[in-house]
Amino acid sequence: MPDRPAPQTIHVVVAGVAGRMGGMLARAVIEHDGVTLAGATVRPGHDWAGRDVGEAIGLGRPIGLAVSDDPLPLFAGAQAVLDFTSPEAAVAHAELAAQARLTHVIGVTGFEAAHLARLRACARHAVIVRAGNMSLGVNLLTAMTRRVAAALGTEWDVEIVETHHRWKADAPSGTALMLGEAAAQGRGATLAELAVRGRDGITGPRPEGAIGFASLRGGDVVGEHAVTFAGMGERVTLGHVATDRMIFARGAVQAALWGQGRRPGEYDMLDVLGLNEAG
């Protein structure tokens, strides 16, 4: 089935507009050419329901669009949904988006195997763009990590260190796991085979080829990631520092535009940016 032609202007719904990223997603849509904010949702019973979106997110002016606690009618009239909610909510939204044939952009992390299986089923009917991080810089870092891991042998130890704000609920971060997957792919393996997520006590020598993770939490850090390849007598460190969450929102809007007219399936930001094609 050929890709469908993409509309010139798309209507976008922001799911979970009252969340940490929700307001920024709404702002990014309002500010971006080629997209129109068609709706914004909150969970049932939330006190934002019925409020004007502009006033609720702090724009300082109404925009003539009310926050809703019922996503179904909003999804029916849109072409894309931006979703940085929670694993459970994102899966429920994916099932609605599949019915409406929307592009579903998911910036949620912490999915379990059962969640991922349901998302795969939804992707048979709709475009799902899911990434642990939507920023251009992080996805370039992911592509570089894969290439460096492929170029260096398993005698080079891989360690991934991530730092986030004190409120972050999951560890390692979705971005750190994405980087770990890239390193594992570069070595022709899966992350499940190589990951070491924590060390405590007498752990013994480091296994050759292992990919280690360390998670730091504190203050209001937006996000910092470093991938170190440690060899005998030398180290290579690749890194990214985020100072503004709006980079994730802008990346999500870019993904929503990219998804228009695509065949149903599961994609990530490397697809959006053309970096998967670069290997």
UniProtKB/TrEMBL annotation:
NAD(+) binds at residues 16-21, 55, 107-109, 131-134. GO terms for biological process: diaminopimelate biosynthetic process; lysine biosynthetic process via diaminopimelate. It comes from the Bacteria. It is an enzyme of class 1 (oxidoreductase). It catalyses: (S)-2,3,4,5-tetrahydrodipicolinate + NAD(+) + H2O = (2S,4S)-4-hydroxy-2,3,4,5-tetrahydrodipicolinate + NADH + H(+); (S)-2,3,4,5-tetrahydrodipicolinate + NADP(+) + H2O = (2S,4S)-4-hydroxy-2,3,4,5-tetrahydrodipicolinate + NADPH + H(+). GO terms for cellular component: cytosol. Its main location: cytoplasm. It is found in: Cytoplasm. Residues 137-273 form the Dihydrodipicolinate reductase C-terminal domain. The keyword Cell wall biogenesis/degradation does not apply. Residues 10-134 form the Dihydrodipicolinate reductase N-terminal domain. Keywords: Amino-acid biosynthesis, Cytoplasm, Diaminopimelate biosynthesis, Lysine biosynthesis, NAD, NADP, Oxidoreductase. GO terms for molecular function: 4-hydroxy-tetrahydrodipicolinate reductase; NAD binding; NADP binding; oxidoreductase activity, acting on CH or CH2 groups, NAD or NADP as acceptor. (S)-2,3,4,5-tetrahydrodipicolinate binds at residues 165, 174-175. NCBIfam families: dapB (TIGR00036). Belongs to the DapB family. Homotetramer. Catalyzes the conversion of 4-hydroxy-tetrahydrodipicolinate (HTPA) to tetrahydrodipicolinate. PANTHER family: 4-HYDROXY-TETRAHYDRODIPICOLINATE REDUCTASE 1, CHLOROPLASTIC-RELATED, DIHYDRODIPICOLINATE REDUCTASE. HAMAP family: DapB. This is 4-hydroxy-tetrahydrodipicolinate reductase. The gene is dapB.
